[in-house]
Amino acid sequence: MPTPSPKIDLLHAATKAAERYIETERAARVSPAPESIEALDQLARVTLDAPITATEALDLLDHVGSPAAMRSTGGRYFGFVNGGVTPVALGASVLATAWDQNGALPVMSPIAGALDALAAEMMVDVLRLPPESIASFCGGATLANVTGIVAGRDHVLEQAGWDVHTQGLAGAPALHVIASDEAHVSVLKTLRVAGIGSNSVTFVPTDELGRLRVDELPEVTGPTLAILQAGNVNTGHSDPFRAIIDQLRSGTEATNLWVHVDGAFGLWANATPNRHQHVDGVDLADSWATDGHKWLNAPYDSGVVICRHPKSLKRSMAMDAAYVETPDHERAPMNLGLQMSQRARAIPLWAILATEGRAGIAATIEQSCQHAERFAELLGAAGATVLAPPVLNQTLVRFDDDQTTDAVVAATQAAGVCWVGATTWQGQRAMRISVSDTSTTAADVEAAAESIVSGWRNLSA
Ligand SMILES: Cc1ncc(COP(=O)(O)O)c(C=O)c1O
After folding, report:
1. 95-105 tens-digit pLDDT
2. Whose CA is nearest to atom 2 of ligand 1?
3. CB 291 within 8 A of CB 141
4. Which atom of ligand 1 is least distant from the CA of 80?
5. Could you give phi then psi for residue 48, rounded to 5 degrees?
6. Alpha-carbon distance 97 to 102, whole Å?
7. pLDDT at 253
8. Quick one: CA torsion of 82, 83, 89, 94, rounded to 10 degrees?
9. Does 160 have pLDDT greater than 80?
10. How far does residue 367's CA lie from ligand 1's centre (Å)?
11. What does the pLDDT look like over 416-457, one tens digit per residue?
12. CATH 1.10.645.10 assigned to 92-353
């Protein structure tokens, strides 16, 4: 007789609840019904002084939690840049949770260490970045930006004869920082965290698609950090990397330059034969931030930083203590990023990369781009204004005026067939449609477009 295991019993209960949820992820409305949100009040009845059993906790999550979840994995969620989760990533993630490995050091978990190293190599390869680069996994693109930008800051200041580790930042040589006026908010926060105030950043103007204007680049001399973008969060368009980097590197005075690319979703364009021209020259940078939880459809907490200068990354991120010493040749995740203890994040990423392969990833990225194009076609044909021609997975449209646009977004969200967000683009309200769940089908796009257009027609009627 096997020994009874509460873990297995609860895992079965959780799997059953997950099964019930997954069965509704395509059928039910995308956003929770108002009564499901109201029912969340029941959760507050459980207090520290009146705890419940484990079975009761799972029951609450099943009956109160699942109905209030946003069905962002069922093909018709187009909000923010929130991806879905692929079947193999879900399965691998469940197993990885059962393993509960600490991914900080290979000695803590041989399996986590092995998959971390393999997934990191595949990541550099599939994104077609320079082979000497090293990848490391972190919580998201914000943290990947912090990691890459801090490594770059330390590197250029070191080249200028200043050691941030011992000397700090006060009194350091002036660091020139260039970013576009369309830099993502996570970059602005990163700069703050890195001790770089916005007054010392040159924000270069962008064009009508949100791309940094090469003709507006400042002359650079001395230690310089340039932060570029693959995939504007509204338009999906990217900075002209080759022209920018060539111009910055050909400055009249010798330049000590580090280029970091925020490519939270846009970097994936480089993995496809049909779209990589939209990020031409991105491989000329020194570090890159991207996400597995956006377009790759890994579970959340799947950021990736990639750095062309492994020694510089390690120098900025390493922690040394006798009890966590690692041999020099060994890849230790805690010395390649900000965290020490960490979920073994590479496991679901490895499962996706290993099963989809180069061709599969290229095909899913391409498919999302085609869906975004179809949205523009359908909504444009219905009379909406397409504000930027889709090149990746973002479609940006507007209906009549600001007020109508906001009303169409609200009506679409309330109808529940799909979920889309609102934004302000160059002073005008717009609807943002981000095709980031790779389970979206052509039929989902048609149904979503129909719901959007009928919401608009109902408003006019
Ligand atoms: C261009 C860009 N950079 C950075 C981020 C931040 O990514 P994360 O939410 O994974 O920290 C986002 C999120 O949407 C993004 O679109």
Report:
1. 999 999 999 99
2. 264
3. yes
4. 14
5. -65, -30
6. 11
7. 59
8. 30
9. yes
10. 21
11. 999 999 999 999 999 999 999 999 999 999 999 999 999 999
12. no
Give the mutation target among 137, 147, 184, 423 for probing the ligand 1 site: most ligand atoms within 8 A of CB. Answer: 184
For residue range 362-415, list pLDDT tens digits in order.
999 999 999 999 999 999 999 999 999 999 999 999 999 999 999 999 999 999
Terminal C-alpha separation, the chain: 69
Give the per-residue pLDDT at 254. Answer: 59
d(CA 190, CA 185): 9
Ligand 1 atom index nearest CA of 294: 10
Name the residue among 61, 58, 83 with its Cα closest to residue 72. Answer: 83
Tell me which residues have their CB closer than 6 angstroms to ligand 1.
80-81, 140-142, 184, 186, 231, 233, 262, 264-265, 291, 303
For 242-263, what is the mean pLDDT?
Answer: 88
pTM given for the model: 0.97
Nearest residue by C-alpha to atom 11 in ligand 1: 142
According to DSSP, the β-strands at 421-425 and 134-138 are unpaired
Between the CA of 264 and the centroid of ligand 1 the distance, in Å, is 5
In the reported structure, the alpha carbon of residue 190 is separated from the centroid of ligand 1 by a whole-number distance in angstroms of 12
Give the residue carrying structure tokens 């340039």: 226
Residue 36: in which H helix or E strand, if any? helix 34-38
**Domain spans, the chain:** 6-71, 92-353
